[in-house]
Design brief:
This protein is α+β, with helices and mostly antiparallel strands and 135 residues long. The protein has a six-stranded mixed β-sheet with strand order 2-1-6-5-4-3. It is globular and about 50 Å long.
Length: 135
């Protein structure tokens, strides 16, 4: 790739990194209306342990609400962002480190999230997500 095409790809990759950060800021802050704007209505989230699926924006939002309703997030950090873009499709990943209190016990976890996005007239929307624990 050269010239404008390379610059366009790099700009789109930065948009994906920014969108991932916006998603994290929204859910950690409990701003679910903002979070909903980043989800495609048909988004699917795949659970890391069971492989179970949560389908649809409302159900996915409910899973974030349920977690925040049960847990107190003490710290959430994101790092090691990557993004790859092909036209109107993209994959974004990042490492996360989280500390939270659930049922009176403090937990610290590290993992990696993988998000798939499509770009439409209203920008990049998440269509698929999973995560897995790190060591």
């Amino acid at each position: 790739m050269t010239g404008r095409t390379e610059a366009g790809r790099e700009a789109a990759e930065e948009e994906i990194r920014t969108r991932l950060h916006e998603i994290n800021e929204a859910w950690v802050g409990g701003r679910f209306a903002q979070l909903a704007r980043y989800f495609d209505p048909e988004i699917v989230m795949v659970a890391p342990d069971s492989g179970g699926r949560i389908a649809g924006a409302e159900a996915c939002l409910a899973s974030f609400k349920e977690f925040l309703g049960a847990a107190n997030v003490l710290d959430f950090r994101e790092s090691e962002f990557t993004a790859d873009v092909w036209g109107t499709a993209a994959v974004g990943t990042f490492r996360f480190d989280i500390t939270y209190v659930l049922d009176g016990s403090q937990h610290t976890e590290a993992g990696r999230e993988i998000w798939l996005f499509t770009r439409g007239d209203d920008g990049w929307r998440a269509v698929w997500r999973t995560q897995f624990p790190l060591g």
